[in-house]
# Entry
Amino acid sequence: MNTQIRIGVMTSGGDAQGMNAAVRAVVRTGISRGCAVYAVYEGYEGMIRGGDLIRPMDWSSVGGIIQLGGTVIGTARSAAFRTREGRREAARNLLAHGIDRLVVIGGDGSLTGADLFRREWPELLQELVTAGEISTELAAAHPFLGIVGMVGSIDNDFSGTDMTIGADTALHRITEAMDAITSTAASHQRTFVIEVMGRRCGYLALMGAISGGADFVFIPERPPEIEDWESHMCQVLRTGREHGRRDSIVLVAEGARDRNGKPITVDYVRQVLQERLGEDTRVTILGHVQRGGAPSAFDRWMSTLLGYTAVEELLSASPEREPQLIGMRENRITSVPLMACVEETKAVAKAIAEQDYERAMALRGGSFSEAFHTLRTLVQSQPRLDRNIGTPLRIAVLHAGGPAPGMNTAVRAAVRVGIDHGHTMLGIHNGFQGLISGDIVEMDWMSVSGWGTTGGAELGTNRKIPVGPELYVVARNIERFNIQAILVIGGWAGYQAAYKLYSSRESYPAFNIPIICMPASIDNNLPGSELSIGADTALNNIVEAVDRIKQSAVASRRCFVVEVMGRECGYLALMGGLASGAERVYLPEEGVNLSDLQRDVEDMRYWFQRGKRLSLMIRNENANSIYTTGFMCALFEEEGNDLFEVRQAILGHLQQGGHPSPFDRIHATRLAVKCIEQIAHMTQNKENLGAFIGYRGGKVQIFSLDEMPPMMERDHQRPREQWWMSLRSVARALARQAPQDA
Ligand code: ADP
# Structure
C-alpha cells in the first residue's frame, strides 16, 4: 500500500490577500517533504462535490500566484457542510484520494467546521463502511483526520494570532484611499466620513486612523464614552479647523456603535457634521476595495512562513495531539491550540454584543488599547495645556543616516506628543551637520501637519558623525539653544553619533542630557530592534518592482538577478526573496563562493531544460565584492548558453522612496511616543542618560547606550543577533532543487 502522506489544502469563508502565498507554501513544502498535496477547490463546497474540485498539485501548479490577490483555488460558503450528510460526503471524497490531513485557511466558521469534521471522522468512516461506500481496509488505513488551521481574514479579528492573513494588505488599501482622499479633501477644505470593514473588530479603523491620519474614529470595542458624542466630535473637528487644518477625516468601522449598542453609521455622522458644522461633508464606503489588489510584502512573507509551518505541524499530527492554529505572535510564527483561539474569538464578539466593552477591549490586548490612546493624543488639533506631565523640557529631534520612509511620521508623532506633554520641541535640520551649524527651529503643533503620510525626511538627513573640534561646537549649540534632550531618529550613523556624544560626557558636560536613538533605516541593521522604520516600505517597494520585472518576461526563458539594498545586512534580500518567490537569495552574512554559483547554474540548466520559463535570484548589494551582480549575470549568461537569457535589475534608490507603508507609519508613531515618555523618565531619574529603543518580541524595549557596542558587529555594520536568519531554511525548502544527478 502507498504510505505517502496526502495533504488537502483549502481556502474557505471570506477571501483575503495572502491566501495564495499560503497555498503555494503548503504545496511546495509538502512536495519537498515527500507528501502528495491536493487542492480542494471552492472550500467545503468543493469537498462535498468532489470530482474535479479535488485536484493533485505539482510544483508548477502554484507558480506565479504569490503576487495575486484573492485565492486562486476559490472559496465558498457551504450550507451542506453544516449537515452530517454533507460532511460524510466530504469524507468519502477525501478518502477517494487517500487524503487524511487537511490545511484549512479561513475564519472562525471554517475552523470550527474543520474541528467538528475531525472529531466526527471515525464515525463518518464507520457510516460509510456500513453503507458499503468504502471498504473496511480503506477506513482502517485512515483512522484519524489531522487538521491545522490558518486564519484568513482582512479584519484581524482572531485571538491567538497578532495578524491574520490579509489584514496588512487591507490596511494598505485603506491607507492608499485615505492618502488620496486627504489631498482632495484638503483642496476643497472638505470633511470626509469613511467607512472601513470590521463588524466586530476595530483593528482596521484604528490602525487606518493612525496610518492615514484621521481626526476622529469609531470602533466596535470602544464606543464613545459620553452620551452626547455628536457634540464632542463636532467640537474636536471645529477646533481643528480653527488651528489651520484643511481637511477633516472621520473613520468609522462598519460595526461601530454607541454606548447603548445603537449603530453609528456613516450617513448619520455625515448628517450631524453637515447640520452642526455647516461643512461640505462626503461619505466614502471603501467596501470590497479593501479585499482587493495585490497582497502586501508582509502578507506574502508571513503567509509563506505560515504555510511552511502548517505542513511541518501536520506531519507531526496524531490523534492525541490537539489541532493547532498556525499564527504569528510577537513577530514569530507560533502554533497554538486551535479551538481555544476560536473560543476566545467568539468571546470578544459576545462581549461586544452584550455591550461589555471593558471586557472586549481587555480581550483585544495591551497594544490595541495603547494604539487607541496614542491616537487620541495625535488627532487633537491642539495640545491639552491643562495636563501636568512633569518637568517641561526642550527636546531636539534630528535624523542621521540614509533616508527611511516613516522618518516624517516619527517626527510628527514626537512633536505632537512632546507638545502635548508640555515640552518645547526643536527641529534640527540636516542631521548632526545642522547641530554643528546651529540650524535649529522650534516646531509647533501645525508645523508637522501632513507629515504623517509623506516619504523622505522633511528635516533632512545625512551620515555626518561629529568628530574632533566639532564636538565642542555641538556642546556650545546644546547650551546656546538650551537643548535638554536629543531624539535621534535614524540609522547606523545616528547610533554612532549618539554614542560618540554619550561617551564624551566626561570632556563635554553639555552632553549630560538624555540622548535616545530610534531605529529608522531601510537596511534593518540596528541593534536592539527586530524591525526598523522604513524596512517594511522598502520590502514593499522591492516586491512591487519584482512583480513588474516578472511580468516583463512572459514570453521567454529568462533568469533575473535583482540587486537590493541592505548594505551589510541581508534582511531585505531574504525577506524580499520570501515575499517575491525568489529561488535563490545571496546574503552578505553568507557570502557567495564559486561552488555556490556553479550549483546555481547547474540547477537552472536542469530546470530550463525541463520547460522552466523564469528564474529569480535576489542578491544583496554587498553579498560579495568580487562576484558582483554584473559578474554573476555574465557567468550565468555564458553558462546558460542558448537555454536561457540573463538580465540584471539593480533596484537602487527606489527602495528608499515612496510613501511609508501603514506598518512603518504605525511603528514610527508607536516608537516616537515611547521615546518622548522615556526622555521624561530619564530626566526625572537621571540614572542613565543614553538609550536606544527597539521593537523585540512584539514589544517596545529600551536599552542603555552602554549595551550597544557588544550588540553590534562593527566591521559589518549590523547587529550580532538577527532573528530572521533562522528563516533561511524556509527559503531553501521552497526553492526547487535539481536532483543530485542533474
Ligand atoms: P469564516 O470561515 O470566514 O468565518 P463562515 O462562518 O461563513 O466564514 O464559514 C465558512 C464555511 O465553514 C461555512 O459556509 C460552512 O460550510 C463552514 N462552517 C462554518 N461554521 C460551521 C459549523 N459550526 N459547523 C460546520 N461547518 C461550519
